[in-house]
Amino acid sequence: MPVPMDAFSDVRPAVDCLDLLAPPVAAALRAWSGSVPVAEVRYVDTDPAIADTAVLVAHHGDWLLEQSANCVVVAGKRGGVTTLAACLVLSHTRVDVNGAVRRQLGARKASFAPMETVVGDSGMEYGGITPIGLPAEWPLLVDAAVVDTPYALIGSGSRRGKLIVPGKALAELPHATVLDGLATA
Question: How far apart are CA 55 and CA 80, in angstroms?
Answer without folding.
Answer: 38
